[in-house]
TrEMBL record, chain A:
UniProt keyword GTP-binding present: yes
Family per similarity comment: Belongs to the tubulin family.
Gene Ontology process terms (BP): microtubule-based process
Superkingdom, natural source: Eukaryota
Annotated SMART domains: Tubulin, Tubulin_C
Name of the molecule in the record: Tubulin epsilon chain
Region called Disordered, residue ranges: 154-177
Keyword line: GTP-binding, Microtubule, Nucleotide-binding
TrEMBL record, chain B:
Keywords: Cell projection, Cilium biogenesis/degradation, GTP-binding, Microtubule, Nucleotide-binding, Nucleus
KW Membrane (keyword) present: no
Molecular function (Gene Ontology), one example: GTP binding
InterPro entries listed in its UniProt record: Delta_tubulin, Tub_FtsZ_C, Tubulin, Tubulin/FtsZ_GTPase_sf, Tubulin_C, Tubulin_CS, Tubulin_FtsZ_GTPase
Species of origin: Monoraphidium neglectum
Pfam families associated with the record: Tubulin (PF00091)
Protein name, as recorded: Tubulin delta chain
Family that this chain belongs to: Belongs to the tubulin family.
Major location (coarse): other
Localization per Swiss-Prot or TrEMBL: Cell projection, Cilium; Cytoplasm, Cytoskeleton, Microtubule organizing center, Centrosome, Centriole; Nucleus
Domain named Tubulin/FtsZ GTPase: residues: 14-176
Renumbered residue ranges of the record's region Disordered: 176-209
Regions crossing the membrane: none
Protein role: Acts as a positive regulator of hedgehog signaling and regulates ciliary function.
Length: 400, 412
């Protein structure tokens, strides 16, 4: 939206990939104000947006899904991004809407990020089919570990923002953060996610398979993604190759390999998908699932429910890679942190007047309540005990 | 349905699929049985039936329909079921036999309990016979008997294809006992049709019937004739690694004894079987034909069975022990059909295949149902099915149908 940001992107290495006709400009962005993006820019550009979406959708042979990349901390990505989500819901109700938002981290340099994030998360809850959040802090930690293990000096000079999460949680790529490497990791996750659609494999996973298998209850669609090996494309060459196939599976479920800060093993897995790329057979997956299952807390009604995907095309430079998507109750911690920061500001009604230019205050309460209810749902599912099951009686036993 | 079809068509293989004989859409059903059955079914059903009709019109003789499908997913299970129902409606003249691939227990798809139960319950009301192939069994066959350390789907498919070939290739009925008999051949469907099926017999086989078995017709008419016992299992011996074939000595005696033992103990692998009748009672007794399992050790019973022998002297060998009344249900009249063919199967001197509507299907069905109950009690994933026009009542109806199936098999 912001002219400067877009121009910078067009000068970057990806400019040829981007469709110039599908860009929408304004002089300035939404100024870190969710309400400005959602209720201001949204209605104003509605027709233009709809026209561009229609043009893109009509060019498709097979419209699989919409994948939205945006941040939650700022104004444009979170506000206008979630507005687009609502539009897609209206215009293309049967096409799945995926969102890969960048959640703001603790020390975000946007003061109003807590407001923006919670309001946007509420929209994601309402209008997205599947949300795969990514956290800056987790990516930063991962990249830091990678740098240390590679023995190189930490910190890569920030260059043009590229690919996913375009300006990384609202901010101009300043400081010493390795944006490229972080974006690369997130992009790797998206590549693995869509690999089943793009390449062949003996057990292909469509995007609609993912929602089907990973969303047991309509509102609980916030997925945890674990990537192994965890590295940006650029760094793959410098990294030690995964020791073995089994190591890959253990890694994907460990804390250090999650794209948000979470403890997956401490919480209940409601559903899991293992998407393997490269030279691996169903036998490898079966063996590892059997090995790992003991160490994971699985929902009592879905103890065997692993969705398995095999794609024969590996990622460039890697023999094999694994993306473990899971619907894990540890998302409560992430949502909880979001809510805590929101409450800190909202208790004192700070900055509210900026938002009240565009929206009612009731919107805040509504969002806080909805996210709270979602957390409760997840908390209830975490460690839920099996209820006694009422079996049906066979009817046709008159002869026996 | 999706790109998988296109790649199957392009793949180099000894089979060729006519380009006009396949139906291709851009996306699958996303593991959603309801989507495949209620959404894709009505949309592509007419086109699919058109393709079938075109194939049929080119046929001189309709043997029947053989549907290969998985039960876990959305397209194979959901759309496959829809097509089976449509075929049963439109083409009643040929039997409809489904080959269902049962998924891994640990799961390939999270919602496979729902999908599998829905498929089986719907199919058992329209299909004339269901052959169940379990991935788990195919996998174990690969690792334990064929020596494939890391089997892929190609290996599994190979084992499945061989078992199906053994079950469905031409064979000629013969009496169970070894002695030549003069009884007229059974299973002649009609004078005109029978005359058309008379084929020269491949080798001397005095006791073979003159009319070949109808692979699908006889399967439906004999094996799965009882409406409560539509589910049949396939057991095939020997399962040998390709390299060991030349160094193996075959005798009918040992082959049939192993197959029989597999059947009565309910095992699918000729490995780790229980041979000793009762270790405490007879410590040194070696298993032999004279002392098979005592009656109370019969773990498995069948409503009916079909034995196919292939290879040299298949026509003469004595298979009377398969007519054992303890292996069949007490009410079953004439439960065994034996058929033989002198041609070898895949280079094996001798091979034997047993199709039976036995209790071996109960255990996997039970486990699957257990999981479906647990899932449904948490109401997990139900909204995805409701989105495609299936309510909880329909799901429960199929649970009940499976309970019926389990109960009738257990009562054998």
């Amino acid at each position: 939206m912001e002219e400067g940001v877009i121009n910078k992107m067009l000068k970057g290495p990806l400019s040829e990939v981007l469709d110039q006709t599908q860009l929408l400009y304004d002089v300035s962005g939404a100024g870190n104000n969710w309400a400005h993006g959602h209720h201001g820019y949204g209605p104003r550009y509605r027709d233009a947006l709809r026209e561009q979406l229609r043009r893109a959708a009509e060019g498709c042979d097979s419209l699989q899904s919409f994948l939205l990349l945006h941040s939650l901390g700022g104004g444009t990505g979170s506000g206008l991004g979630t507005y687009i989500l609502g539009m897609l819901q209206d215009d293309y109700p049967s096409v799945f809407r995926f969102s890969a938002p960048v959640f703001p981290s603790e020390d975000d340099h946007v003061v109003t990020a807590p407001y923006n994030a919670l309001l946007a998360a509420h929209q994601l809850l309402l209008n997205a089919d599947c949300v795969i959040p990514v956290e800056n802090q987790a990516l930063l930690d991962a990249c830091g570990r990678l740098e240390r293990s590679a023995g190189a000096a930490a910190g890569t000079p920030a260059s043009a923002a590229r690919g996913a999460g375009e300006d990384g949680g609202g901010g101009g790529g300043s400081g010493n953060k390795p944006w490229d490497a972080m974006n690369g990791v997130a992009a790797g996750m998206l590549l693995d996610l869509t690999a089943g659609v793009r390449f062949e494999g003996s057990l292909n996973v469509d995007l609609n398979d993912i929602t089907m298998n990973l969303v047991p209850f309509p509102r609980m669609h916030f997925l945890l993604s674990g990537l192994a090996p965890l590295a940006a494309q650029r760094d793959v060459g410098r990294m030690a190759a995964p020791r073995s196939m089994d190591q890959l599976f253990s890694d994907a479920f460990s804390r250090d390999h999650q794209l948000i800060w979470a403890e997956p093993r401490q919480h209940t897995f409601l559903a899991t998908a293992l998407m393997l790329r490269g030279a691996a057979g169903i036998g490898d997956v079966q063996r590892n699932v059997a090995r790992l299952r003991g160490g994971l807390r699985l929902a009592h009604w879905n103890e065997e429910g692993f969705k398995i995907g095999l794609c024969s095309q590996p990622r460039v430079g890697l023999p094999y890679s694994l993306l473990a998507l899971s619907n894990n109750c540890c998302i409560t911690d992430t949502l909880g942190a979001l809510q805590k920061r929101f409450d800190k500001l909202y208790r004192r009604r700070l900055f509210l007047h900026h938002y009240e230019e565009y929206m009612e205050r009731a919107g805040f309460d509504e969002a806080a309540e909805a996210i709270g209810a979602l957390r409760d749902d997840y908390r209830a599912a975490d460690g839920a005990r099996p209820a006694p099951i009422v079996r049906l009686r066979p009817r046709g036993l008159a002869l026996a | 349905m999706e790109s998988a079809v296109a790649s199957a068509r392009a793949a180099p293989s000894p089979w060729s699929y006519a380009g006009c004989g396949s139906l291709c859409r851009h996306s699958g059903s996303g593991n959603n049985w309801a989507q495949g059955h209620n959404h894709f079914g009505p949309r592509v059903g007419a086109d699919a039936l058109d393709l079938v009709r075109r194939e049929l019109e080119a046929c001189d003789w309709l043997e029947g329909f053989l549907l290969l499908q998985s039960v876990a997913g959305g397209t194979g299970a959901g759309l496959g079921t829809y097509l089976a129902e449509a075929l049963a409606d439109d083409f009643r003249q040929g039997p409809l036999v489904n080959v269902c691939v049962w998924p891994y227990e640990s799961g390939e798809v999270a919602v496979q309990p729902y999908n599998a139960l829905l498929t089986l319950s719907h199919l058992s009301s329209v299909s004339d016979g269901l052959l169940l192939l379990q991935n788990e069994v195919l996998h174990a066959t690969c690792t334990k008997l064929l020596g494939v350390q890391r089997p892929g789907f190609t290996d599994l498919n190979g084992v499945a294809a061989k078992a199906l070939a053994a079950a469905l290739l031409p064979a000629w009925p013969r009496p169970a006992a070894g002695a030549p008999a003069q009884s007229p051949p059974r299973a002649a469907p009609g004078p005109g049709a029978g005359a058309g099926r008379q084929q020269p017999q491949p080798a001397a086989g005095g006791s073979l019937g003159r009319v070949a078995l109808h692979p699908l017709g006889d399967l439906a008419a004999h094996l799965t004739a009882h409406p409560s016992f539509r589910l049949a299992s396939v057991r095939h011996v020997p399962q040998l690694a390709p390299g060991t074939l030349d160094f193996t000595t075959f005798t009918w005696n040992s082959l049939l004894r192993r197959l029989r033992q597999m059947a009565v103990t309910g095992s699918f692998l000729e490995e780790g079987m229980q041979w000793a009748p009762n270790p405490a009672a007879a410590p040194g007794a070696s298993p032999s034909k004279a002392t098979p399992l005592p009656a109370h050790r019969y773990r498995n019973k069948a409503a009916s069975s079909m034995l196919l022998l292939r290879g040299q002297q298949a026509a003469e060998v004595d298979a009377a022990e398969f007519a054992d009344p303890r292996w069949h249900a007490s009410w079953a009249a004439d439960p065994l059909v034996v058929a033989a063919s002198a041609s070898r199967l895949g280079g094996c001197q001798m091979a034997a295949t047993l199709l039976a509507t036995d209790q071996a299907c109960v255990a996997p069905l039970r486990r699957m149902q257990e999981r479906a109950y647990r899932m449904a009690s948490a109401r997990a994933f139900l909204h995805q099915y409701e989105a495609h026009g299936m309510d909880e009542g329909q799901l429960l109806a199929s649970f009940a149908a499976i309970e019926d199936t389990i109960a009738s098999y257990e009562a054998l």
